[in-house]
Write a structure and sequence with these properties.
This protein is mostly helical. It is built from 33 helices and no strands. Helix 10 (about 165-180) runs antiparallel to helix 11 (about 180-195) and helix 15 (about 250-265) runs antiparallel to helix 16. Residues about 1-40 have low confidence and may be disordered.
Length: about 575
């Protein structure tokens, strides 16, 4: 779940040099000509703001303030620049100070609310915004806060006050994005781009939506338009790295992130956190426990990725503790809560956890925004898997299997669904694609693969699976499966061998009956020419240790036939 930033950041310009004094004189005590040149070149605030050089603007504003010649609304402009640099705490402090003075513009309450919003102080943001005048900015802020509070009625109320202007439409598109309505967001962005070709940053938002829809190649093409103009955009570079991670692998993604890593400075804290987080993801979880816990309150995906790390390391308790109190709002959160509950339900044999997991999967897979995405179809497959409706599982897995040809977990689950619907040949093929040694040593995998071998008349391969196992309860269970399935499928030779071992381990009369019947079956197949005659020697050896009158009669008949056909039985 590599995270992608939601805002476009331009790289701040370097601070203007202040190494030389501003009032330098020549040897005669007169001002040098260079002073006049510098004075003429002193930038204007408007020019710096147009260039979005907020560091330069703050430097200029503080220079005038310290010189006792502040510009009109000097502190408001400093707060404005600090906000756009992402220094929301500084901006908040200034707005609080200004609002404590007499005759302050009440609209600053809305500005203060915006600072609180970006600091995650949503209740404070709401209270501050409501103190300000009714403006389009106030409506947009309250619109977003309604989404944060999950207040649908209030959200729709502020939605009705949005106008057909760029700012309001962008705000609406962002809410669509946050609610996983990616296509609706794309439609708004594209419409604005048609009317305003110079709004190239919107290409990043469009690319981000395509990324969320799993159209990584399309996302890459749209993103290239913005990167041609702004090669140093942290958000764009990060999104490009995430696309490479999805399209290729972690190494390719890490190479793309290198340029962002070189560019990040101490003043660009968000980029640094993003780099640390995504490098762990790109490296397959290396350093997860050192990195993710520190970012839980900084990057939302850090919590989800830490849960995934615990799941991959079979630490279900930690995974559950980390996510149990999380109220899911995004498909990824619903999916992860479903996975954790499913894993816990299977480990603890808890019907309650399995039911919760099934409901989460159904909620995501059945939603209009996710039903046609790959994760959405995986969710529906998981839902039906837990309901044991394997024919329905296959409908969804078949529709996405081309995307997961080398995915071990997918092939493992696909194989189980195929085997559960008696599609043994296809199931064997799916199981054979699994490469993970951890999965291949799992008893469930071994038992399903053994059953596929037997059903596909490859009992010898099933027997070899048993021979490779160490003596344990699981090997005993596999032996029972092989014995019974081979008997049922008429593969009596390996059924006899399996029942022979079972009888020696546990002198249960049912094992004797199974061995006796299987040995007779092998004898019949030898007579019919379907089994090598040499097998008769092994059958007699298995029956030799059974002290039973009926067995003695069977052995005499077999020996007589063997002698008549000149088979070496000694």
């Amino acid at each position: 779940l590599a995270t992608v930033a939601h805002q476009i950041h331009r790289r701040p310009q370097m601070l203007l040099s202040r190494a030389k004094p501003a009032d330098q004189q020549d040897e005669d005590g007169k001002r040098s000509p260079s002073h006049h040149r510098r004075k003429k070149k002193l930038p204007k605030l408007e020019e710096l703001l147009m260039k979005r050089d907020y560091i330069g603007a703050i430097t200029l504003l503080e220079y005038f303030q310290n010189a006792g010649k502040p510009l009109d609304k000097n502190e408001e402009w400093i707060a404005y620049c600090a906000f756009h640099l992402g220094d929301y705490k500084k901006a908040l402090q200034i707005y609080k100070k200004l609002l404590g003075q007499q005759g302050t513009d009440p609209e600053l309450w809305v500005m203060l609310g915006c600072c609180c919003f970006f600091l995650g102080m949503y209740k404070e943001a709401d209270a501050a915004a409501l103190k300000g005048p009714k403006t389009p900015l106030q409506n947009r802020l309250l619109f977003h806060l309604s989404h944060k509070f999950n207040n649908e009625e209030r959200l729709m109320g502020y939605h009705q006050h949005l106008q057909d202007v760029v700012e309001d439409q962008l705000s609406l598109a962002s809410i669509h994005y946050l609610r996983s309505h990616y296509q609706e967001a794309i439609d708004i962005y594209k419409r604005i781009l048609l009317e305003n070709r110079d709004y190239v940053a919107l290409n990043v938002y469009v690319a981000l939506c395509y990324y969320k829809l799993d159209y990584y190649d399309v996302s890459q093409e749209v993103l290239a338009v913005y990167l041609q103009a702004y090669k140093d955009s942290a958000t764009a570079i990060n999104l490009k790295a995430c696309n490479h991670f999805r399209l290729y692998n972690g190494k390719a993604a890490e190479a793309e992130l290198k340029s962002l890593q070189d560019m990040a400075s101490l003043s660009f804290e968000f980029a640094q956190d993003l780099i640390k987080h995504n490098l762990v993801v790109f490296r397959g979880g290396e350093g997860a426990l050192q990195t993710f816990p520190k970012l839980l309150d900084v990057i939302p995906e850090a919590r989800l990725n830490l849960v995934i790390h615990f799941l991959r390391n079979d630490d279900l308790g930690e995974a559950y503790n980390l996510i149990k109190d999380l109220e899911p709002t995004t498909p990824q959160e619903y999916i992860l809560k479903g996975v954790v509950n499913a894993a816990l339900g299977q480990e603890q044999d808890s019907a309650e956890h399995l039911k919760i997991a099934q409901q989460y999967f159904q909620l995501v897979g059945g939603s209009a925004s996710e039903c046609d995405t790959i994760p959405g179809r995986q969710c529906m497959a998981s839902c039906f898997f837990l309901l044991k409706q394997f024919s329905d599982v296959l409908i969804y897995l078949n529709s996405i299997k081309s995307y997961f040809y080398t995915d071990d977990t997918f092939n493992y689950n696909f194989g189980q669904a195929l085997a559960s619907t008696a599609q043994w040949k296809e199931a064997e093929e799916a199981f054979s694609l699994v490469q993970s040694e951890k999965l291949k040593s799992d008893f469930t995998y071994l038992s399903w693969l053994a059953r596929c071998y037997v059903m596909n008349r490859k009992a010898r391969l099933a027997w070899e699976l048993y021979l490779k196992m160490e003596t344990s309860i699981e090997s005993y269970s596999l032996l029972q499966l092989i014995a019974n399935d081979c008997y049922k499928m008429g593969q009596f030779y390996y059924a006899a061998k399996a029942f022979d071992v079972l009888e020696r381990l546990d002198p249960n009369p049912s094992y004797y009956d199974g061995k006796r019947g299987a040995c007779i079956g092998v004898f019949q197949q030898i007579i019919a020419g379907h089994e090598p005659k040499d097998s008769l020697r092994e059958v007699l050896a298995m029956l030799r240790n059974v002290a039973h009158p009926q067995v003695e009669q069977i052995v005499r008949v077999m020996r007589k036939w063997g002698k008549e056909h000149r088979i070496q039985l000694a």
